Amino acid sequence: MSDNQLANKSQAWSALFSEPMSDLVKRYTASVGFDQRLWRADITGSLAHAEMLAAQGILSAEDHAAIQRGLGEIAAEIEAGQFEWKLDLEDVHLNIEARLTERVGIAGKRLHTGRSRNDQVATDVRLWLRGEIDEIGGLLSQLQRVMVEQADRHADVILPGFTHLQVAQPVSFGHHMLAYVEMFARDAERMLDTRKRVNRLPLGAAALAGTSYPLDRERVATTLGMEGVCQNSLDAVSDRDFAIEFSSAAALVMLHVSRLSEELILWMSQNFGFIALPDAFCTGSSIMPQKKNPDVPELARGKTGRVVGHLVGLVTLMKGQPLAYNKDNQEDKEPLFDTVDTLKDTLRIFADMLAGLTVKPEAMRAAALKGHATATDLADYLVKKGLPFRDAHEVVAHAVKTATQQGVDLAALTLEQLKTFDARIEADVFDVLSLEGSLNARNVLGGTAPAQVRTQVARHRARLA
Ligand code: ARG
Fold first, then answer.
1. How many domains does the chain have?
2. pLDDT averaged over every residue in the chain
3. pLDDT of residue 223
4. Nearest C-alpha to atom 2 of ligand 1 is from which residue?
5. What separation in Å is there between the alpha carbon of 121 and the centre of ligand 1?
6. Whose Cα sits closest to atom 11 in ligand 1?
7. How far apart are CA 430 and CA 436, in angstroms?
8. Buried-most residue among 177, 271, 328, 355 (CB within 10 A)?
9. C-alpha of residue 202 to centroid of ligand 1, in Å
10. From the CB of 31, is ligand 1 less than 6 Å away?
11. What is residue 32's predicted lDDT score, i.e. its pLDDT?
């Protein structure tokens, strides 16, 4: 018995099978426990398929009408939570089809003409994923908007920029926020690019070889708003590279969230004290009354592991499969679902949390004044006075050494002291040795000068409007 004759699978697949499945095997092979989540895509795909079968004269108008009515009723049942999902019917596809036949009779048995669950499931996953990608795109935009506003508010707030987690040069907090905006903008671009390859139609590939019915696959693609038809039936039913691509784009988003989380966690520790997160995103300790822990960023950092794990899972799932469809592919769903859920929750929560982020400019400033953050500015100053950069670098190293020995920042040395390192140093040196001087000097495209940050804020606002 092929899938299209299947209405009631509670006994066995066909006359070919002489023993029933054990409960364990049923549970092991069934996917309805999780793939019922695809029901809407399954019904949308079936409606488009039936419409095309009717247009091609493969299905009568009467049967088509019955199928349309039945699927509409089933959608309402599922929405109302009244649909009874049966493990015996293995997956979402067979459950819906069996119910259709229960409701509309023989027409229901005709729906599966020219189709297999192999092309059906690939279509369903693609339709579902397309919708999720669109939602994720919206969430990425929202997160970026929040960060752009924080950047605008704090364009003039100075914190130490680090390399090797050692104080390097002063940067604007706004500039720091916009670094993440760039990352999330690329993430959104990647999602959109992936969408193009997700949004292609496998239906019509049937089990693996195509079908002998005169299907109009282009018509179905148009009905479903897809950008094209998969051009090889073997490939259409078997590859899940679109899911892997999505999963990889999702892993990158989480990677960026995780890096940001790490910074938020560090910044919130007493040793930095750069920021406070709203209480609603922190938890206390059951034993230490003074504690406020950044649980949300910590969890996001932790959940990055599971999303990256799902990517590895999907890649591994695919790697040894011969053409065409193999049941291995049923295992693509749980990692995909969990990736989408984790990503969406994380993006939502980060947008809310970052909107309420409090910045502590004094603590940032004090930290920026600690590690001779303007040493490069002094070197650049000497270069402008005619010293070759390598020599200037050496002069400043001596000055830093002296300042360190005296336990002060480079900017706290007197003009007299500074002059001992190079006679070219004048009173105007303090313009560049100050944090503001250093920041304002970096007024180059992509630099940290507040003027540049504001230009970028304007660009992002226009892009995200
Ligand atoms: N539940 C299956 C899956 O998720 C549907 C396709 C099953 N096809 C088959 N020939 N057994 O992949």
1. 3
2. 95
3. 98
4. 330
5. 7
6. 327
7. 10
8. 177
9. 14
10. yes
11. 98
Q: Is there a single domain that holds both residue 129 and residue 145?
A: yes
Whether 164 sits among the annotated catalytic residues: the reply is: yes
Q: Determine the structural domain holding residue 409 and report its residue range.
A: 368-464
Q: Please spell the DSSP secondary structure of 139-193, one letter per residue.
A: HHHHHHHHHHHHHHHTTT-EEEEEETTEEEEEEEHHHHHHHHHHHHHHHHHHHHH
Are 272 and 417 in the same domain?
A: no
Q: Which of 312, 342, 365 is the last residue of a domain?
A: 365
With a 6 Å cutoff on the Cβ, whether 346 touches ligand 1 is: no
pLDDT at 211 over 50: yes
Task: Tell me what pLDDT residue 289 has.
Answer: 82
Ligand 1 pocket mutation, candidates 39, 85, 118, criterion most atoms within 8 A of CB: 118
CA dist., res. 220 & res. 200, Å (int): 11
330 lines ligand 1 (CB under 6 A): yes
- The Å distance, Cα 365 to ligand 1 centre, comes to 60
The answer, yes or no, to whether residue 357 has pLDDT greater than 60, is yes
Q: Are residues 431 and 322 in the same domain?
A: no
The pLDDT of residue 171 is above 50: yes
Q: Is the CB–ligand 1 distance for residue 342 below 6 Å?
A: no
Bond into 324 cis (ω within 30): yes
